[in-house]
Amino acid sequence: MTIQTKIFAIAVAAVAWITAGQSFAEATTEPYSLEQGRYSAVVDGEKVKIQAALEFKVLEDGLIQIPVSFGGAEILDLKLSGGSAVLAVENDQYTVRISRKGTVRLTAMLIVPLSRNADQEGFYLEIPQAVFSFCTVTVRRASVQLSPNYAAAGTSQTRGDQTIITLPLGLKRQAQVFWTVRPIQETPKTTEPVEPVYLANLQLLGTLEEETFRCLATVDLHLLQGELKTALFELPSGWTVTGVRGGSGIADWKTEAAGSNQQITVIFNQPFKEGNLRLLIDAEQPLSSGSASVSLPSIIPVGAKRLTGQLALATATAMELKDPVMEGVKRIDVRELPDELRAMANAPVVAAFRYMEAPYHVTTQLIRPEELPVLVAIAESGELITVAAPTGETITRAIYQIRNNKKTTLSVTLPAGSTLWSVLVDQRPVKPSAGPRGQIQIPIMNNHGPETVFPVEIVYVQKTGSLKSLLGQVRYEGPGLDIPVTVSSWKLLLPDGLIKIGYSGNVEAGFSVNTVPVELAAYRDVSANAALRRDSARCQKVLAAAPAAQSLADCEYKVKEEFQEVVGKTQQTGVLPFRISIPQSGRVYRFGRLLAVNEPMSVQINYVRTSAMPFASGGMVFVGLMGLAGVARLVRAKK
């Protein structure tokens, strides 16, 4: 070959090389390439989990965006590694952004559904086109093989109880992997059921009530192995199970006869596996008035490898218990019971036991003491104020502080000839009714309970003896109650111009107690001591300190015989009474007594009017002089 020929060949080759380079540059429009795609799939039930690993090669500097899409697969995770690449979302699509040349690795966790037909099963996955891609599938069965369409290119290998399939994808934009089940009949492996092993702890509280023996059992189960779908308990017959509780894990429970006992079956929503479970069992049995003994129920968890526990017996009545007969338990001090068990008791715990072995029995004799009657109502105090007119009419207000448990009516006996004006209970007017033997019935049912004291106020008028005589006596009497009155005080206001020279009755003069006053007006008390009785002039100076709302002294000559007739015309049945203000005027005398039971207070007062004092003084002088004259005559006769 000549030199010219060689130079021409070199020139042609150079032109061809340059032309080829320009064509390659024009063909390579994308500034990146996906060099490799690796996919690792695992079949999990009805879905396929796929781990994808992509490797991009970035060929130029500057901001480059690489779209990433896997069709309809569910993307659980995306991660980038290498370079200054970041992951972004643009137009509802993942995009890899990178600013300079280099290698970018992308990993993704995908999930696609498992497809099945009559002959085979597998999955579809849309993938980015790469220079080369391949897929590895793990099927957790040993009896599978690649479908005929893929058998030539791929391989399958059995490893233990699973099959590994490897399939090259090349330049494909979709991964399709399907396999068929081999016609190999494998003997299924059977596992022997594990016998459940559990421990039980029982805390039982039995409470004796008036007519019922109640039982609350707390059972703690500790499962060591296996599982429990149901729990069984034995309970003596004669007990009625009223409830089984244990959170939301109990689906149902039932009781059925089992020989001389009965069996409780507790069904769980899901099998109870290793751990702790607490069940509460409520039961009761009737306790008749003739019952001579009771037995704590023996609740035994069927199948428990070990049973421990404590028993407590409480009583909410006045029953007395004899020493119990025990079997399978040991008696302990009540203070040795767990705090949780003692906290469940709403009555005093009288006996405690520790469980030792099954079955256990605890029987005790009952002694029912005879109940004694007690008060159902009492008047803690009574306060009376009586205002007397000279013509003999009196008006009395009596206020009793009542404590009531269950009494519905209060029977009150007013003095003979009395007319009832008003009745208030707890500051509210009530309608009284007629009772036997002339009594009045007052409704006193209290809604506040026996710990609350409330007042009962009675106002009545009465015609007694006139106080116009120069010397005389008058008798006053208070109301009688059908309940005891602990302490009573009586304020008696007599007209001015009277001197009390003596009294008799079932009361004590000058009586004073610390009670709530009937009236707020203050009075000076007239003491019934001997000094005041001897000094009439001093008695006249001790007068009432407060003015009266209406002075009875001014009405002395205005009160007529038709007083009772007028009062009768103003009375009417079927209406509620109202509060009446008592006029107060005159001299105050105080009386009282302690512990009145079905006996009204009464007092008879001997009096003398101050207008008769000059005559009384002259008479006494005359009698004294006559006495001295008689003594002088006797002396002279002896001489």
Task: Write structural notes for this entry.
This protein is mainly β. It folds into 3 domains: 32-181, tricorn interacting facor f3 domain (Immunoglobulin-like, Sandwich); 197-367, tricorn interacting facor f3 domain (Immunoglobulin-like, Sandwich); 377-614, Immunoglobulin-like (Sandwich). 12% of the residues lie in helices and 49% in strands. It contains 7 helices and 44 strands. It has an 8-stranded mixed β-sheet with strand order 34-33-37-31-30-40-43-42, with no helix packed on it. A 7-stranded mixed β-sheet has the order 4-7-2-1-10-13-12, with no helix packed on it. It is elongated. Residues 4-8, 15-28 and 514-564 have low confidence and may be disordered.
Question: Which strand order spans the largest sheet, edge to edge or round the barrel?
Answer: 34-33-37-31-30-40-43-42
The proportion of residues in beta strands is: over 45%
Distance between the termini: 216 Å
CATH topology name of the largest domain = Immunoglobulin-like
Q: How many individual domains?
A: 3
Say how many strands there are: 44
Report the uncertain regions: 4-8, 15-28, 514-564
Shape summary: elongated
Count of helical regions: 7
Mean pLDDT across the residues is 78
| CATH architecture verdict of the largest domain | Sandwich
Question: Which structural class best describes the helix and strand composition?
Answer: mainly beta
Portion of residues within helices: 10-25%
Report the top-level CATH class of the largest domain: Mainly Beta
Radius of gyration: 56 Å
| Biggest β-sheet strands, sense, barrel | 8 strands, mixed
